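Quick one: C-alpha cells for this chain, please?
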Amino acid sequence: MHWKPLIRLISILSFAFALPVQAQDGTSDPAAVPEQNLAVASTEGLQIIDAESVDLDAFLWTKRVLAVFSDTPADPRYVQQMQLLTERPRDLIERDVVVVTDTDPDARSDLRRNLRPRGFALVLVDKDGVVKLRKPSPWSTREIARSIDKTPLRRQEIRERSGTSG
C-alpha cells in the first residue's frame, strides 16, 4: 500500500475540520474547480486540493491558485499556514482562490516542478497564470487578500462588479 498519498489526504482533511472529502465527478458546481480526478476538502466553501495531479493550466482565467508547500505535513509552518487559511476562508473564497497543498517533495508533482519551492513556501498564482507572491513563512488570509487586491486583474474584477469603468 502507498502510504504517502494517504498521509497527505489525512493532512488535508485534518484542516477541513472533519468535513467530507468529495471527488470531482462533474455533478458539483463547474465553476468551483476544473474537472479533474482530485480529492477536494471544503472548509466553508474554501477548496483545498492535493497537488498530486493538479494542472495549473486548468485554473487559467477561472481561479487563483494559492500553493502551500512543505517537505512534510508535520512542518510547523505548514500547520500554522493551514490553520490561518481555514480560520478566515471567506477572504479567499471572495477572491476566487483555491488552495493546493504539496507536502511530499519526493512525489515531484507538476506544481512543485513548475514553482520550485524550497522547504516551506506560499505561492500565489493569479488567474492569468503569473506568480504574484512568494513567501517563505506563513501569511494570514488578510495579508493574502490585500496582496490579491493590489493585482490588476483583481482591480478589474472589482470595477466590473461595481459597474464602474475606471
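The helical segments are 3-15, 76-87, 90-93, 110-115, 141-149, 152-162.
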